[in-house]
Amino acid sequence: DMAEPIQQLTRNNNPQERQTIPFTLIQRKEKLGDLLYEKRQYGKAKWACIKMEEKQYEQSICLGFMKLMRYICEQNSSGLYLGITVPIVTIVHTNEAQSAMTQAVTVAYYLPEVLQDEPPHPLDSDIIIEEWPATIVYSR
């Protein structure tokens, strides 16, 4: 099922072709010279998002990522490979009281700058294009 997206990604796996999402570094936490995490602010932008709710958190992330990869690798209204942006963001959801994590996660792909004004539509109806306001992200 993933053979075509993986082949497409492999053909396009040149690190120079990966677009880093522009951000402002807010905080950087290190321990003994190793980076633990960065707190970053990303500007307002359009993202392709999919919310998954499998029994295991890791399954949700993996399946969401695979669906996004299909969108990136030609399963979109343009029929073209869209290019990789890094990082792919995972949002962990909490219950209403914010006292526990739920099984739901959102996996999101930042649309490259050239696609921000008119992003290709996903062929998978589970993927939606959202415009996010400026967002704080913790990265490791």
Automatic annotation (TrEMBL):
Coiled coil: none annotated. Gene3D superfamilies: Regulatory factor, effector binding domain. GO terms for molecular function: heme binding. Pfam families: SOUL. It comes from the Eukaryota. SUPFAM superfamilies: Probable bacterial effector-binding domain. InterPro entries: Reg_factor_effector_dom_sf, SOUL_heme-bd. Belongs to the HEBP family. This is HEBP2 protein. It comes from Struthidea cinerea. The gene is Hebp2.
